[in-house]
Task: structure prediction
Amino acid sequence: MGNTFGHLFRITTWGESHGGAIGVVIDGCPPKLAIDINTIQAELDRRRPGQSHLTTSRQEEDRVEILSGVFDGQTLGSPISMLVWNKDAKPSAYEHLKDVYRPSHADFTYQQKFGLRNWQGGGRASARETIGRVAAGAIAKQILREQCGTETLAYVKQIHTIQAEVDSDTVTLDDIESSLVRCPDPRASEKMAECVDQARRDGDSLGGIIESVSRNVPVGLGEPVFDKLKADLAKAMMSLPATMGFQIGSGFGGVVGTGSQHNDPFYNDDGRVRTRTNNSGGTQGGISNGENIVFQIAFKPTATIRKEQETVDIDGNPVTLSAHGRHDPCVLPRAPAIVEAMTALVLVDHFLRQRAKTLD
Amino acid sequence: MGNTFGHLFRITTWGESHGGAIGVVIDGCPPKLAIDINTIQAELDRRRPGQSHLTTSRQEEDRVEILSGVFDGQTLGSPISMLVWNKDAKPSAYEHLKDVYRPSHADFTYQQKFGLRNWQGGGRASARETIGRVAAGAIAKQILREQCGTETLAYVKQIHTIQAEVDSDTVTLDDIESSLVRCPDPRASEKMAECVDQARRDGDSLGGIIESVSRNVPVGLGEPVFDKLKADLAKAMMSLPATMGFQIGSGFGGVVGTGSQHNDPFYNDDGRVRTRTNNSGGTQGGISNGENIVFQIAFKPTATIRKEQETVDIDGNPVTLSAHGRHDPCVLPRAPAIVEAMTALVLVDHFLRQRAKTLD
Amino acid sequence: MGNTFGHLFRITTWGESHGGAIGVVIDGCPPKLAIDINTIQAELDRRRPGQSHLTTSRQEEDRVEILSGVFDGQTLGSPISMLVWNKDAKPSAYEHLKDVYRPSHADFTYQQKFGLRNWQGGGRASARETIGRVAAGAIAKQILREQCGTETLAYVKQIHTIQAEVDSDTVTLDDIESSLVRCPDPRASEKMAECVDQARRDGDSLGGIIESVSRNVPVGLGEPVFDKLKADLAKAMMSLPATMGFQIGSGFGGVVGTGSQHNDPFYNDDGRVRTRTNNSGGTQGGISNGENIVFQIAFKPTATIRKEQETVDIDGNPVTLSAHGRHDPCVLPRAPAIVEAMTALVLVDHFLRQRAKTLD
Amino acid sequence: MGNTFGHLFRITTWGESHGGAIGVVIDGCPPKLAIDINTIQAELDRRRPGQSHLTTSRQEEDRVEILSGVFDGQTLGSPISMLVWNKDAKPSAYEHLKDVYRPSHADFTYQQKFGLRNWQGGGRASARETIGRVAAGAIAKQILREQCGTETLAYVKQIHTIQAEVDSDTVTLDDIESSLVRCPDPRASEKMAECVDQARRDGDSLGGIIESVSRNVPVGLGEPVFDKLKADLAKAMMSLPATMGFQIGSGFGGVVGTGSQHNDPFYNDDGRVRTRTNNSGGTQGGISNGENIVFQIAFKPTATIRKEQETVDIDGNPVTLSAHGRHDPCVLPRAPAIVEAMTALVLVDHFLRQRAKTLD
Result:
C-alpha cells in the first residue's frame, strides 16, 4: 500500500524493470483537459536511458500508451491508465546477481522484507519505476500551466565536486536541455560531462545535486500541519531512488545566520506583498507565499558499478562482486524530468485541495 | 485534511496556541498496552517552554490528560484522546501583531490561505502544536521498545556555527539530558548555551541542526515506492515548524564520493548480514537494513525576534516591527523530544504495516 | 484506524460511554464559517437521552465545548475539536455485566478482537459514540444549507409493526419534532409511543425503520466507481450501532418491477431536466441527479433488555442474564438527529470533492 | 479519487467499456503467494458476458494478463497490475445514444458531473468496470482460503417475483454453477430462466436479489466505529452498478421482532462460543463473531432496454428512445462472481488490518 501518491490528484504506479510493463493510473484528474500524448512522450524522452553515451546503455523507446480516461482527446474525469512496455529487457545479464547482494542497492532489503525478489535488473527498485511518475507529471504540469501559469524546472546543480552557477529566477528549459548533462551552466556542464565519462570508463559512478525552481505558484498551497508544502515536497523527492537529502530555501546553510539576517523582509511591490530575499524558498508556515519555490535534492552515486566490491551472497558467504552488463555512471542527467514531475504532482494536488476548501 | 499523520498508527492533532487546549487523537494503537501517564508527561516536560532561561519565558505546565482509549491502565484499541490546556495564554501580548505580518512567520500565508487567522501567538503555526505529536510519540516509543527493543534518540548537533562531535552509535539519553541545550558534546554544549544567551540578550534568534539516531530497528520497515522509510521520515521532519532540510546517512556531503567509495560493503557478522560503513543511514531501497537509522534536520532561526525588522501590515503599508512579549531565541534545545516523537511515529507505523503483510 | 470518516471534510471521533469524555475532531472544514454553538447544541439535544419517558433514563446534559478551530466566532480552517463530558456515568450499574456477554451486543466481539473491553456501559459500542458525529454533522448541515440550500431530514418510518405514511417531498422538521417518537404521521406516532412504552414496561426492546430525505442536493455529487454517493451513504448508515439494512429509492421492493416500469423517465421541467418518478432515490450511476435523495435504514431492537436471556460468561459457562440498570426500549426516536448528521457529512464531503475537480 | 478501494489490500480499477482496456492494480498483496492465472481467469469467466443466451450478446473472451507483481509464479509484494483488452467493442452501435439520456442510466449524471462522457457503451458506468474487481477478488479469495479456510459464495436468491429457497449453511459452488442463472434452487432456477428469456424477447429487463454467505470467517474482523465490517460490506456492495439495497442478517425483516426474540443467544459449543440463531448475520458491534456472514443485495432491473421510453436529449428536447444494439435482460446470473469478489476484498483487507494490530 505504498504505491499511491497524492490526495486528490492521486497516482498509483506499478511495474518491475523486467516484468511485462511499467505503468501508472491517475485518479482524480479533472475532466475536459485536452491531452496531447506527444507532450507526455516528450517528458518520457527526457527521462529515458540511452539519450547519450553518458548514461546507461539500455535501449528503450519507452513509448507511452493511454488505455483509459481519455476520449476524443479529452480527459473524462475517470482514471487515466498509461503504460510503457519493457522491451530491451535482458534478464540473462543479471543472472550473476541472482544470489548476490549489490552493496547499497535494494537487493538485501527487498529479499529480507519480501522473502523473494525479482533479481532481473532491480525489479521495483529500478529507476524505470519513475516512468509512471513522469507520465503522470506531464499532465500535472499541464494543469498547473493552464490554470495558474506555473512553470516547474529542474536542473543539475552539482555532479561529484563540480558545482554550477545558476540563476534560478531566470534559467529556462532551453538552457537546461542544451546541456548534455542538463546543467545550464555551460562551463560546469562541460566539466561534468568529462567527469561522468571518466567514471563510466572507470566502471565507477557519481552523485550530485538537482535544484528545482517553480515560478508563479499561487499563494496558499500547503495544508498545515502535516501536509505542509515543504513536507510533501520532501516526501516526494525522498521517495525517488538514490536520494539522500532535501533542502528548501536556505536549507542546511541557513542555520548559521541569525533570525535578523535570515528572515525575509516583506515589502509592498506595487500592490503585491513580496519578500526582499527568499531564504524561505517560497513557503512560510508550510504554505506557498508566492515567491519562487526553490529546493535541492542530493543523489548518491549509483549503487551498481563495475568495479570490484566486497559483499556477501544470499547465504551470507563473502563474495567479491564486479557487476557487468549495463552500467549507468550517473543518473543526474536524467533526473530533472523526474524531479519536475514529482514537483508538479505535489503542486497540483495542493492546488486542488485548496480549491476544495475555498468556498464562494 | 492535513492534520492526520500515519497509516495504521494514525494521529490527528488539533489546537491553537491560544485556543482552549491542544490535543491529539491516536487511532490504531494496539490494545492491551500498559500506559503510564508519567512516561508521556516526561516527554512533554522535555518539550515544554520555560525549562531554562535559554528558552521562551512562557510558563506552561503542559499537564497531559487522557480522555479515552485507556481503561484500567491498558489501551483498549479504541482512539486515545489526550489534551493539554492552554493556561499561560496572554492574547494581549500579541495585540501589536494583529495587523502586522512578522517576516518569515506564517502570518502572511495563513491570512492569504484562510482569509483570517488566530493572531494570538501563532495559532496553529505555533510550536505548541507539537504537544500532541510528543504525547502520541511517547506511546509509539513504548511500542517500539517493547516489541523490538528499538531506541530512538535525538540531540543538538549544531547551533549557529558551533558544531558538536557526537558518536551516534554510543550516545545515551543521559548524555543528552545532562546538557542545558541538549547537546551531548559538553564542550560544544557550553559554547552553544553562551551563544543562545547572547542571542536572547540581542533580541535575535539562532538556528541549528538536530541529529537523530534509531538503534535496533527491525530489518524490512518501509514501503516502496512512495512510502519509503526515508520518504516518510523526511515528511515527518519537514512537517515541523522552522525545518529547512533533511538528510539521511551521508546526505548532501555524500555526493562528492564515487560509488566505490560511497557504497556500504556487506559482510557476515557472525551470521547476521551487516554493512561495514553506514553511508546509507540505515535504509536501502527505502527499507531499513538493520543498521542505525541516522539523519539530520536543519532548523532556521526562529522567525519572531525583538530586533527591528522591515515588513508590511495587513493593508500592505510599510511597517517597522520589533516584536515584544515572549521571545524564544532558539528552539533547538526543545526540539529533540519532538524529533524523537516523529521518528517513533514513523517507525511504529511501518512496523505495523510490515506485520500486516507478513503472513504465517 | 477505523475512527475517521470522510475524505475532505473528515471527522475523527473518540470516547467511551464511561470514559472521561466523548468528542470529535473535524479536519477540512472550510474557513470563515460563522459558528453558532447553540445550533450544534440543538442537534445534540435531539440526540441526547432522557428527552422523554420513552428513552433511556440516563441523564446527560451533553453540553458541547469547542476547544479549537474557531476564533471570534468563525472557523479558522484548522481542526475543530469538540467534546462532551460524561457526567451521569454509573460504572457500578454495569458491574454485573463485567464477565457476561450480552446477546447480540458487542461484548463478545470486542473481548475477542481486543483481548479486553471497557465493560462500563458498552464502551465504544455505546450509542454515546454518535455524539461526535452529531456535533460535526451540525456544521456539515450548515455548509450545505448556506452553499446549496440543501436540507436533510430524517424521521421514524416504522417502529415494530407500525408503519407511518409520510410524504418525503413535503415533510418538515416541525412535523417531525412535534412527535414524541419523531414520526411525522400523528396517527402512527401515537401508536408507536404506546408500543414503545409497553416494551419499556416489558423490559424488552423494539426496532424500526428511519427514512431520510435530502432536498436541493446539487447535481453531480458522488465519485465513481467506489465512492458512489449511494455507497458512501450506505457505509455511513451501516456504521451506526444497531443498523441491519440500507436501501435507496425503490430498494428491495424495486426488484419486482421490470426495467420499463422501474426506469425514471426524464422530462424537461421548464429548462431543468428532471425525472417523472424517483425510483432511483436521487442518484444514478452513483451520482446525484438533482432529485430528492431518499433512503431507509433498518434498526434492530436494542440488544440490552431486562428480560431474561440465555448466554455465556467470559469463561464460556452458561448464564441466565437479566440486565438491570438503564434500559432503552427503542433508539428510533433519537436516531433522526444521527441519521441527518451522517447524511450531511457524506453530502458535504462530496460537495467539496466535486468543487476540487471542477476547474474554471 | 474514487477508484481505489481498501486500506491495506487496496485495489485501483480503471477503464471504460469501449476504451482500450479494463484493468486493476492491487497494492498491498502479501509476497510469496503462488499465483495461478487460471484461477483468476475462471472467476472472470463466471462474470463475462455471452455465457448463455440469457445475457448480453457482447462476445468478450476477457482474457486476463498479469503485467507486474508476479515473478516465477509468486507475488513479489509489489503492485499486481492486471488487464483485459476490450475486443468486441462496437462504438457504432451506440451512435444513436450519443445525444440521448437513457432513463435511469448514468448518461445524464456523468454528463452533468464531468461535462462530457464516453457515450460508447456506458464508459465507466458499464458493468465491464467490475472486471478489475473480479480479478483482484480472485487473489483475495485465495488468501482467505489459504490463511483462514474462509469460503465466500454468492447466488441468486430472487429474480423478479421468483424467490428461491436456499440453505446458506450448506449451499456449494457446484449447486450454484449448475444453474443457468446461478440460483441453487433448481425449481426456482428453471422459472427464473424462463422469466429472463421472456424479458429478453420483450426487450425489457429484470432485477433481483443476490445472497452472499461467508463461512469460517475469523472472529475479530471489522474496525469500529466507521469501518465496521457491515459498513465496509455495505459500501462494497452499494458501489456496484444497479444496486439499490443491502441488508445483513435479519435485515429489514428483523425490525418487527422484539429484542428478546431477535437477540442471538450465546452458548458454549464444545469450547467455542457460538450463537443459537444468526439474526446478526455474523457481525456484532461491527466485528465478525465467527458465525456465517450472510447478507443480501437488491439489484434493480437493467436500465438499458429495447422498449420505447420517454426521455430527453442533451439539449433537453423530449425524445422517444428504444435502445437497440446489445441488451442484457438481467445481470443477476453474472453478479455472483462480482459479489464474491467484493466480499473477499473486504474480508482480506480487514484480515490484514487485524493482523497489524495484534501484537505478540
Observations:
- DSSP finds eight helices and 18 strands in chain D.
